[in-house]
Amino acid sequence: MPSGHVYVRHLAPEHGTAPYRLPDPDPAHPDRPAGATWWPPVMLDPEWAASADFDLFHLHFGFDACDPARLRELVAVLRERGAPFVYTAHDLRNPHHLDRAAHDAHLDVLVPAADALVTLTEGAAREIERRWGREAIVLPHPHVVELSTMARLQRERAARTGAPFRVGVHVKSLRASMDPLAVLPTLVETVAALPDAVLQVNGHRDVLDDDGARRDPELADYLHAEAGRGRLELHVHDFLPDDELWRYLSSLDVSVLPYRFGTHSGWLEACRDLGTTVVAPSCGHFADQGPVLGYVHDEDGVDTASLAAAVREAWSERPRLGASVESRRAQRAAVAAAHDALYRSLLG
User: Fold this and answer.
1) With 0-12 CB in 10 A as exposed, 13-18 as middle and 19+ as buried, what is 74?
2) pLDDT at residue 127, rounded to an integer
3) Is the CB of residue 203 less than 8 Å from the CB of residue 223?
4) Residue 25, Cβ neighbours under 10 Å: how many?
């Protein structure tokens, strides 16, 4: 769970049969499918787990608001009914939490209790072994963009000529893990010194509009001032639907991730799907997910020289670090088969 999330959907084979995943229940009516709304996740309720018709419980995300004691109750219910419990550790440091204590408390319940652990990178598996003494199966993140869309936008990128070299930073709604002001001044100066290059910054209205509910005045003032000087393009908008998000990402040559902590990134995977080079920080295990250009950035700060060097390398070398449709199709088949085999082994 949640079964409606794109990651979980793409654990199924592209064609053919797959393990049946129960639809996410509607929080208001747990006996009905949720459709697009699955929060708060009913499947984490011990009462639901005690009576629902399933053979195996596989948890991915959605437990942020759960009390650890409630998760222990859930695990106890699964044990009582003899249902194997699989946990995929996507986040070893929650990108939404300034303090790691709450997420660590959740992991201290889930990781030791799981009958099988999965994670996305070798680096994360080593961290799990170091912190909990558990071995995790490493299965890579499948594609995020649908394969047909991926193929179309990759063709459009290949046919595009004459456009400026476009470096993007997306501040979204400013997660706790993001520190855009640590990287933006360096990016402004670096991109300005490159011929035929543009720095594009996108952000959500709640953070950048004057009346935004979560307005960050320092960031908003800086971005509007630099945009007014013509040193960056500023795009302020609401949450983008997938088709607009993929088109925006495919318009970039480079996407710089302004993270100072975290673990893995679906954004990085979407960039790889679309042929956009990622400049990824040294924190977490982002660089283990696939080929990226790296720079030093963690909770101790940013090495601006490494960031500038990565952007200049992207401009001069124009590396092709994305994934092909064929490789993503093969990867999805392998990941789906591995999950099927894992489930069968646990169910005997």
Assistant:
1) buried
2) 98
3) yes
4) 21
Q: How far is the C-alpha of 225 from the C-alpha of 38, rounded, in Å?
A: 40
Cα–Cα distances in angstroms (integers) from residue 276 to residues 31, 53, 113, 197, 291, in the given order: 42, 42, 38, 15, 11
Residue 127 and residue 117: Cα distance in Å, rounded? 13
- Amino acid present at 318: R
> Which pLDDT score, from 0 to 100, does residue 29 have?
65
User: 């994670």: which residue's tokens?
Assistant: 119
- The whole-angstrom separation of Cα 123 and Cα 263 is 9
Q: Over the stretch 165-217, which tens digit does the pLDDT of each residue have?
A: 999 999 988 899 999 999 999 999 999 999 999 999 999 999 999 999 999 99
How far apart, in Å, are the Cα atoms of 43 and each of 30, 51, 58, 67, 140?
9, 11, 10, 14, 25
Nearest to 102 by CA among 42, 38, 176: 176
Asked if residue 103 lies in contact with residue 97, where contact means CB atoms within 8 angstroms, the answer is yes
User: Between 242-250 and 147-159, two packed helices, what is the crossing angle to 10 degrees?
Assistant: 30
Which residues make Cβ contacts (< 8 Å) with residue 227, sequence separation at least 6? 201, 233, 234
pLDDT, residue 185, reads 98
The token pair that represents 31 in the structure block: 């006996």
Helix, strand, coil distribution of the chain in percent, nearest 5: 45, 15, 40
Contact indicator for 226, 187 with CB cutoff of 8 Å: no
Query: pTM (2 decimals)?
Result: 0.94
Residue with structure tokens 């789906």? 336
